[in-house]
Amino acid sequence: MATRINKYLSEVGYCSRREADRLIIKGKVTINGKVPEIGSKVEESDQVEVNGRIIEKSTRQKYIYLAFNKPAGIVCTTDRKVEPNNVIDFIKYPKRVFPIGRLDKLSEGLIFLTNDGDIVNKILRARNNHEKEYIVKVNRPINSDFIQSMSNGVEILDTITKNCFVKQLGPKKFKIILTQGLNRQIRRMCESLGYRVKSLKRVRIMNIKLDMPLGEYRELSKEELSKLNELLKNSTKTFD
Prior knowledge:
Elements: E1 3-4, H1 5-11, H2 17-25, E2 29-31, E3 41-42, E4 48-50, E5 53-55, E6 65-70, H3 87-91, E7 98-100, E8 108-114, H4 117-124, E9 132-138, H5 144-152, E10 155-156, E11 159-160, E12 165-170, E13 173-178, H6 185-192, E14 197-205, E15 208-209, E16 217-219, H7 222-232
Parallel strand pairs: 8-14
Antiparallel strand pairs: 1-3, 2-4, 4-5, 6-8, 6-16, 7-8, 9-13, 9-14, 10-11, 12-13, 14-15
Helix pairs in contact: 1-2
């Protein structure tokens, strides 16, 4: 049975479907020696290579799910040539994993790493309404108008952000729970209201809470995975 090339690469644990499409566009992927198009399909008898390395179904490994407390200064990328301060070199995990989504370089906190490409888009897809919780400190005192504006939506990137939960925790500190993942969303929202983010920490993704020291990772427990899969049960994927 033929399989889309991006799905094939995610199923064998090489990368996410989104990353697979980027590799295809860059000409890094071949099927039987030829560079495919986005959406091309792979038969069982086809030879797939990425950067000249043969990728086979037999290379599929047990799925890995890690929770990592990312320090500021570490970049959530698998491109080790472009970015020396990348998450892969930092954690030095013995098997191939890749981050689910991003947490910008200046931010710290919880991020998932996995070799399960199928779970990535279920978590990232905004329409699935999966919560991500952050603790944020800004450069000057906030007030009820700031909290209300952040909660009701702010105009950034030619759109209005979705309504979200925001609670003041101190003179310059607040908690925010998002179900979106726009580029540098919280920083842009604050900037739009005349504030600058001094520190940003992600403390929860869905049912998984940040509970490990800065710079360390752990495997998700069976209970956490069971609950996570329950929450993802009715989620749509980015690709069919």
